[in-house]
């Protein structure tokens, strides 16, 4: 199918909305848009960060998911207590594949699940005593942990437990940081507020711990990588590039990160933001309080990497600028070979994306480097500032969908017929059964890293492996195939 | 009275950001913008107007200030 015109895309949206009752149609219409690159502001065409309505299938998470799962969870040397009933922690355990170095259960705790396991009596009589006991037990069993965060689940807010008081007392008792996080799942419309709450908790309870302590030796080239969760090793693939160009990465937020790194972040010279959505709050705070500028960067695909490396280098002196050029030059043969190998196999293929945080816009460049085209994109929980940044990345008259419902997404895919869909685990099997190649773009389908030049090679291989897999030719049952073939024969005859 | 984060963009323009409202806009005009008096009415890129209590001396940017929303005429 050729690229759609503006009118065709508008007609498609209208057609898909047709089945809804009047009120739902009006509401959903605001969340679907045709991209128009001439717009400066997304609020002219799309509404985002609104409550999903009951009755439609949404793919969003909750504030707890945003705080424990995304921001706090990857901090490896802290123990994150899922405070409340056991399910929230257990069912989300280790799902995001935030890789880390360390001995799990001794000095790192990333893939373990700690919970206060609320029972009926804790709901009735309050769970503060249980939390205190929980912290004592952790201290006895895992003495090498560097701190504790208390991630509230829904009941904590409902019964009004005072986790702040318990945390303060226990922090004094054990002499380590204990952070209460008020990320009850019912707060906000999606995981996005959980990110904000988690950022605020870091700001209030951790970030200022080393203010006025200058014992940490700094260099003029200190940077912090913020909003890279090291999924499948992403942060490592990014870090090597930054270090190669001469920068010193002081902290990783929060993939493979530690609490000590977070405390040292106010000493850096520049904050590098990868996932803008989940960590812009803390970057803004540091800019205001510590006067640390921040910039967004994008390490997907060689075009964007080169652009980002140069933009980062522009904040430093000539040695770093030369370093950036040297890094780009060094990997040139490598990524040219990747493009030469995979571009002919992937050229002209169309992709539809529906993901979270930063990827709906960040990965577009990587697909374009491989000659592919992104024809539709959308965010689960973006705000308007994310769409502002997306409009310029996407082609004209392509489809934008915010908090898309299960029904809408299926219909869009049926009509647009992309060659590849990139989304999460809940969408995967629907589209695979429809016979459409699919990549999980939240967890890289258990592959990765995709960041950096090394990641790009893996990204290209994975896309090729999925798209050109012979299984897609076997989707149709033989008797149906024979029928459609014989019809074709008749038509010719 | 939303609290507004102010920061300078790379091109030198002031950005006006209200986290609660997801509002990030450039400041198009500012009533008083001198070293010893700063504030007053501000006009944003999307046409809405806010009011800062005039400050003296001018605040160091980036900073967070309280602003009042002015009705649009």
How would you describe the overall organization of this protein?
Chain A has 493 residues and is an alpha/beta fold. Helix content of chain A is 47%, strand content 13%. A 6-stranded mixed β-sheet of chain A has the order 1-12-11-10-13-14, sandwiched between helices. Chain A has a 4-stranded parallel β-sheet with strand order 3-2-4-5, sandwiched between helices. A 4-stranded parallel β-sheet of chain A has the order 7-6-8-9, sandwiched between helices. In chain A, helix 10 (234-244) runs antiparallel to helix 20 and helix 14 packs parallel to helix 20 (452-467). Chain A is globular, with a radius of gyration of 24 Å. In chain A, 48% of the residues are buried. Chain B has 73 residues and is mostly beta strands. In chain B, 0% of the residues lie in helices and 59% in strands. Chain B starts with a strand and ends with a strand. Chains A and B meet through helix 12 and helix 17 of A and loops of B. Chain A: It catalyses: N2 + 8 reduced [2Fe-2S]-[ferredoxin] + 16 ATP + 16 H2O = H2 + 8 oxidized [2Fe-2S]-[ferredoxin] + 2 NH4(+) + 16 ADP + 16 phosphate + 6 H(+).
Outline:
Chain A has 493 residues and is an alpha/beta fold. Chain A is built from 21 helices and 14 strands. In chain A, strand 6, helix 10 (234-244) and strand 7 (248-254) form a beta-alpha-beta unit.
Q: Can you lay out the helices and strands and say which pair or pack?
A:
The complex is a heterodimer of chains A (493) and B (73).
Chain A: H1 6-17, H2 22-29, E1 32-34, H3 63-72, E2 78-83, H4 87-91, E3 114-115, H5 120-125, H6 128-141, E4 147-152, H7 154-159, H8 163-174, E5 177-181, H9 191-205, E6 222-228, H10 234-244, E7 248-254, H11 259-264, E8 270-273, H12 276-290, E9 294-296, H13 302-313, H14 318-346, E10 350-353, H15 359-362, H16 364-369, E11 373-379, H17 384-391, E12 399-402, H18 406-416, E13 420-423, H19 425-433, E14 438-440, H20 452-467, H21 478-492
Parallel strand pairs in A: 2-3, 2-4, 4-5, 6-7, 6-8, 8-9, 10-11, 10-13, 11-12, 13-14
Antiparallel strand pairs in A: 1-12
Helix pairs in contact in A: 1-18, 3-9, 6-8, 9-12, 10-20, 13-14, 14-20
Chain B: E1 3-8, E2 14-18, E3 23-33, E4 38-44, E5 49-55, E6 63-66, E7 68-70
Antiparallel strand pairs in B: 1-2, 1-6, 2-3, 3-4, 4-5, 5-7
């Amino acid at each position: 199918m050729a690229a759609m015109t503006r009118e065709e895309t508008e007609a498609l949206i209208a057609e898909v909305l047709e089945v809804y009752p009047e009120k739902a149609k009006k509401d959903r219409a605001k969340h679907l848009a045709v991209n128009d690159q001439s717009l400066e502001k997304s609020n002219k065409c799309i509404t985002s960060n609104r409550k999903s309505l009951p009755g439609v299938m949404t793919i969003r998470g909750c504030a707890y998911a945003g705080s424990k799962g995304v921001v706090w969870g990857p901090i490896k040397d802290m123990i994150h207590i899922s405070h409340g009933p056991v399910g929230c922690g257990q069912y989300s355990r280790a799902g995001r594949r935030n890789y880390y170095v360390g001995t799990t259960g001794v000095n790192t705790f990333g893939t373990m699940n700690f919970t206060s396991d609320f029972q009926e009596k804790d709901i009735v009589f309050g769970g503060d005593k249980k939390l205190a006991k929980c912290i004592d037990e952790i201290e006895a069993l895992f003495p090498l942990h560097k701190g504790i965060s208390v991630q509230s689940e829904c009941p904590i807010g409902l019964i009004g437990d005072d986790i702040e008081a318990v945390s303060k007392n226990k922090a004094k008792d054990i002499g380590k940081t204990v952070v209460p996080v008020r990320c009850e799942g019912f707060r906000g419309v999606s995981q996005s507020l959980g990110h904000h709450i988690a950022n605020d908790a870091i700001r209030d309870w951790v970030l200022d711990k080393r203010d006025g302590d200058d014992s940490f030796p700094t260099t003029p080239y200190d940077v912090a990588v913020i909003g890279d969760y090291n999924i499948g090793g992403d942060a490592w693939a990014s870090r090597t590039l930054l270090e190669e160009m001469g920068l010193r990465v002081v902290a990783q937020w929060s993939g493979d990160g530690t609490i000590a790194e977070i405390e040292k972040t106010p000493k850096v010279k520049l904050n590098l933001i990868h996932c803008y959505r989940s960590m812009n709050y803390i970057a803004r705070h540091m800019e205001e309080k510590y006067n640390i500028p921040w910039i967004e960067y994008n390490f997907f695909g060689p075009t964007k990497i080169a652009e980002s490396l140069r933009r980062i280098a522009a904040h430093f002196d000539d040695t770093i600028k030369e370093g950036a050029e040297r890094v780009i030059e060094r990997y040139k043969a490598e990524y040219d070979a990747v493009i030469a190998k995979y571009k002919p196999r992937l050229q002209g293929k169309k992709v539809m994306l529906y993901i979270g945080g930063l990827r709906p816009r960040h990965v577009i460049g990587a697909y374009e480097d491989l000659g592919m085209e992104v024809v539709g994109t959308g965010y689960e929980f973006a705000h308007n500032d994310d769409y502002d940044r997306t409009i310029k990345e996407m082609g004209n008259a392509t489809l934008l969908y915010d908090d898309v419902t299960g029904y809408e997404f299926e219909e869009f895919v049926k009509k647009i017929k992309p060659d590849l869909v990139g989304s999460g685990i809940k969408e995967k099997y629907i589209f695979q059964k429809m016979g459409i190649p699919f990549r999980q773009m939240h967890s890289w389908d258990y592959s990765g890293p995709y960041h950096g030049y090394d990641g790009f090679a893996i990204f290209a291989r994975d896309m090729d492996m999925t798209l050109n897999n012979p299984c897609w030719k076997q989707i149709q049952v033989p008797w149906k195939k024979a029928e459609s073939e014989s019809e074709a024969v008749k038509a010719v005859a | 009275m939303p609290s507004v984060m102010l920061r300078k963009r790379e091109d030198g323009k002031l950005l006006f950001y209200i986290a609660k409202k997801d509002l990030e806009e450039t400041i198009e005009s500012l009533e008083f913008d001198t070293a010893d008096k700063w504030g007053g009415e501000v006009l944003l890129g999307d046409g809405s107007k806010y009011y800062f209590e005039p400050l003296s001396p001018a605040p160091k940017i980036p900073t967070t200030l309280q602003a009042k929303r002015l009705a649009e005429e």
